Amino acid sequence: MYRSHFGLQESPFGITPNPAFFYAGNTRGEILQALLYVVTHGEGIIKVTGEVGSGKTMLCRMLESQLPPHIEVIYLVNPSLSPLEALFAIASELGLQPAGKRGDEVLRELHADLIAKHSAGKQVVLLVEEAQAMPLATLEEIRLLTNLETARNKLLQIVLFGQPELDEHLDLASMRQLKERITHSFDVPAMPPELVPEFLDFRLRAAGYAGPALFSQKAALRIARASGGIVRRINILADKALLAAYAADAERVEVDHVNNAIQETTFKKKNRIVSHATTALTLIIVLLLAGIAWLLWRPPLPALAPARPAAVAQVAPQAAPPVAAVSSKNLPQ
Questions:
Q1: Which sequence ranges are marked TM in the entry (predicted)?
Q2: N or C: which end of the chain has fewer CB within 10 A?
């Protein structure tokens, strides 16, 4: 709708991950290069965590698009699978026919297929999305697949993508062995406010925009504050702000257009840490106010009758021993 108005060839702020719009700033380029290195060198299990909408799926798509041809990529996108269902899904991704077979039969076929691929100079990497939502037993089953190996190489490379809850699961005693198999961990950070103007401009240029800065500095920083630095939120607000500017027949996006976008958008709380901290602070304030109210409104205590003075026992002073009582035998000679 607004594309022709602003000279765009396509929508710049779609939320579906598109490698053509991958922004390498804010350490994302470095994370991608590190992922490419560790995957191609077959170094154990890799973990990538980040908040909802932080860009994990985009990294996953970029990783797949840039891996060399000898590496075969398979996906496990349904996190609710049981251990056996996950095994069957992986086998199906590799072109095997697991239907109607026992789990141990499928595992043997999977092992044989991976050995054949390794002998042919190929490598297989399993990309697991939404790993934090996966049953613990299924995560353990995936760990066991790393036992499929030759004398020198792992036959299956695994990359886990998940929200921070994945780390909480890995801290459980039952997940200790899986945690110890993770050789590299990466965290996708939120976008700092100072990079949001650059991010917006990059996406616009990737969509074919060729004019001067389309978002004013104040508008971009307003998006940064309202989004909390979460990339998906930035894209949603930027898209709605462009629509508001188009509706107003404006040549660029200003703060008022962003404010209109914010009013039409409801985001959940940014993360659980802020939520927990806010809850704890609220509880403390409520308890303090309750204590003050009790002190101010408590009923007066009944007056106590004056206590009678207790009788004081008369104790006769003890007489000092007579001088004569000190034996001369005890005196120094």
A1: 277-297
A2: C
What are the beta bridge partners of residue 75? 127
User: What are the pLDDT digits (tens) for 184-210?
Assistant: 999 999 999 999 999 999 999 999 999
| 152 and 126 belong to one structural domain | yes
Q: Which domain holds residue 75?
A: 27-187
Burial, 117: exposed, middle or buried (Cβ in 10 Å; 0-12, 13-18, 19+)? middle
For the chain, the domain total comes to 2
pLDDT of residue 298: 55
Q: Which of 75-89, 261-275, 307-321 has the lowest mean pLDDT?
A: 307-321
Q: Which of 156, 187, 218 is the last residue of a domain?
A: 187
Q: Which of 187, 206, 239 delimits the end of a domain?
A: 187
Give the C-alpha separation, 239 to 261, whole Å. Answer: 8
Write down the pTM of the prediction: 0.78
Q: Across-strand partners of 125?
A: 73, 157
Q: For residues 273 and 276, what is the distance between their CA atoms, to the nearest angstrom?
A: 5
What is the sign of the dihedral through the CA atoms of 276, 280, 283 and 289?
negative
Is the four-CA dihedral 24, 25, 28, 34 of positive or negative sign?
positive
Give the pLDDT confidence of 42-68 residue by residue, as tens digits: 878 999 999 999 999 999 999 999 999
The answer to whether the CB of 69 falls within 8 A of the CB of 121 is: no
Which two three-digit tokens encode residue 204?
A: 């616009």
Q: How many CA atoms lie within 13 A of 106 on its CB side?
A: 22
**Count of C-beta atoms within a 10 Å radius of residue 297:** 7
| In a shared domain, residues 255 and 109 | no
Upper half-sphere CA count for residue 43 (Cβ side, 13 Å): 13
Question: What is the spatial distance between Cα 2 and Cα 10, in angstroms, rounded to a whole number?
Answer: 10
